[in-house]
Amino acid sequence: MTRVRTKVAVVLAATALVAVSACSSSDTNKPSGTGAAVKNVEVFTWWAAGGEKAGLDGMISVFKKDCSQYTFVNAAVAGGGGDKAKTLLANNLKAGNAPDSFQAHAGGELSDYIANGQVEDITAVFKAAGLDTAFPKDLLDQITVAGKVYSVPADIHRANMVWVNPLVLKKAKLDPAKAPATVKDWIADLAKLKAAGVATPLALSKGFAEEMLLESTLLGDLGVDKFNGLYDGKTKWDGADVTAAINDYKTLVSYSNTDRETMDWDAAMSKYLLPTDPKTATGGYQLMGDWVPAQILSLKMPESSYMYWPAPGTDGVYQWLSDSFTLPKGAKNPEGDKCWLKVVGSAEGQKAFNLVKGSIPARSDATSEGYPKYQQWAMEQWKAAKLAPSLAHGSAGPGAWNNDVQTALSAFSANSDVPTLQKSLVAAAGKYANWRSTVG
Amino acid sequence: MKRKIRSVRTWGPGLLLVSPSILLIGFFVYGLIGWSANISTTNQNSRFERTAGTAADAHIGLANYTNLFSSPDFIQSLKHLGILAVFYIVGALFFGMLWALLLEKGVRAEGLFRAVYLFPMAVSMFASGVVWNWLLNSDTGAGASGLNQLFEMVGLGFLKNHWWVSSPTWGIAAIAIPAVWQLSGYIMALFLAGFRGIPADLREAARIDGASEFQLYRHVLFPQLSPIALSALIILGHMSLKMFDIIMAISGEKNVYTSVPMVTMWTLTGQQDFARAAAVAIILLVFVGFLVVPYLVHNARQEKNT
């Protein structure tokens, strides 16, 4: 009896020791020999599906050609706007487990990573690849922080676009090809649509879509210079012009669908603006970025089912957002990453990427042949336009500012209280407007 | 001397058996709780939230906590948590008890009914949340879908409402509906087991004494179920505090209608406000502690007495 008990005790003790030692020995979750690890280039994005994945695949094939000594490791995490990916990335960076390159919105959102010392200064890589002359000067100005560049823009999207269902507009005898000149003209058109029996003239959705509508209204009412000043402290958010713009925004929201808080932009588009039978649509307009054509294409609807123009009052202004790639600090393969960044910034890489993604190349020397109709128009616009950043998409300010504004707008959606919204916006600006100067 | 050796032999093997669990739980649960609590007293936030002039790793005491409790958004999320918890607990207990009452007498296809009521628990909360997002669509007009359309179709049009969008304070009660749907089967299983565990002679004795059905339940059976009701209450309570995936699937984050501390913690982590996120986590832990610790003490005392 005692001998059995002793044996049992010994076995249990051994198991306990093994369990404890197993826990402490695993410190990496990527088994790799030193040789293989140096050849891998692990790139973290949120482009795991659809046109975005197709674009990424296009760039990967250029990488395979130009950087053939390295192996591309695709660490994409699904989820459209990248919210989940960004949280996972924040955790990985904090744990010291940085990928070799990660996707981030150029501009304000990147400043969070710069301030936390999580990305390297790549001004030298830029100059070596000739990228300091390949991008428009205004874009370079808006992504340069304290004289340094920290990411390579891969694409440009435009946020201030209105998408139109021509059949619905014809019901109110409005010309769908003619953009209203100002926000007030647009409100008048919305009223005409309502009078003609269109139930929800403006299709709106939750979160960043409301923020985009507010930003477009501010841009249309204040003009590009004052608008840009909102994001660097030059323009005050408590001014009378901002109050007037918020009131315009309130009017616009009153013409939108009441279930806007429950759906994302693509659901709102499929329900109100472009249902399967566009004749039955109950909405005439939707303000959304130019990732819309790729979405409509994926729904297999014809190009003739929609029209588009820049948001009223913002013609000639390109409200840009840019997906860009970085060189994280502590990346395991910085040389491989620099090769990747060169591909991202190259004319060939940008063409392969943007042709299928629905965006346009950031380079100013890109030619528009071979691109679909919308992108050709967009590239023409990009050459001549004035630039304004977008808070909703990370180019105007840091992520926390974006979050605070979205929360304030969801409260406004409930109570339509203009003074409270303006107060929240002023408070947020007071907290974050110095984001450029607080970086590193 | 001999007595000491004998007692080691008595509890020695037992201790060895549980020592891996003690070590693992000690590190992964309590160790990491301590680590989180430590982070929550530091300055590891984004540069906009950091106490000016102090390094990121410096300890700043309870500044993160006072910052949270002075933010009206956080207070609102605590209110939401309270409302959600009350509706969820009452709803799950009510329906769990209802199904258990209906089934405990023994019906023909009891196995089928039990499976039907219990099945929602096997579904991932996020997946069911996606479907409930469609069902709880707030459109009440011509384009109504989901439950609103169903009400219209069966002539109960007056029941149509905006669900969780109807009010920034109370709208979150609508989120209790999918949660109750998911967990009431589990509560039913608890109560059913409880009912079945009551000896049949008690019911016989009550009937012989002339008790009506209602008196039988009220004075004989329900009192016997009170320990089960208590443990169900504790389980539902701590689950309601941790509710995250249903809310993310239905209404998402940055939403003033359905903000709860768990979702706030997620948003803060994404903004790299790590210390504040840790503070929210510790606050939630304290709330759960208020629920669970008295229960454990009560249980331990009861076991000592028997």
Tell me briefly what this model is:
Chain A is α/β, with parallel strands linked by helices and 440 residues long. Chain A has helices at residues 2-25, 34-39, 50-66, 83-94, 108-115, 123-128, 137-143, 166-171, 183-195, 208-222, 224-230, 240-254, 265-273, 292-298, 334-345, 347-357, 373-384, 399-415, 418-432, and strands spanning 40-44, 71-74, 101-105, 151-153, 157-158, 161-164, 202-203, 285-287, 307-310, 317-321, 323-326, 386-389. In chain A, the strands form three sheets. Chain A has a five-stranded mixed beta sheet, with helices on both faces.
Name the features.
heterodimer, A: 440 residues, alpha/beta, D-Maltodextrin-Binding Protein, domain 2, 2 domains, 5-stranded mixed sheet, 4-stranded mixed sheet, 12 strands, B: 306 residues, mainly alpha, MetI-like fold, 12 helices, flat
Topology (SSEs and partners):
The complex is a heterodimer of chains A (440) and B (306).
Chain A: H1 2-25, H2 34-39, E1 40-44, H3 50-66, E2 71-74, H4 83-94, E3 101-105, H5 108-115, H6 123-128, H7 137-143, E4 151-153, E5 157-158, E6 161-164, H8 166-171, H9 183-195, E7 202-203, H10 208-222, H11 224-230, H12 240-254, H13 265-273, E8 285-287, H14 292-298, E9 307-310, E10 317-321, E11 323-326, H15 334-345, H16 347-357, H17 373-384, E12 386-389, H18 399-415, H19 418-432
Parallel strand pairs in A: 1-2, 1-3, 7-8, 10-12
Antiparallel strand pairs in A: 3-11, 4-11, 5-10, 6-8, 6-9
Helix pairs in contact in A: 3-15, 3-16, 10-11, 10-12, 12-19, 18-19
Chain B: H1 2-40, H2 63-69, H3 72-104, H4 110-118, H5 125-135, H6 147-153, H7 176-197, H8 200-208, H9 213-241, H10 245-250, H11 261-270, H12 274-305
Helix pairs in contact in B: 1-12, 3-7, 3-9, 4-7, 7-9, 8-9, 9-12, 11-12
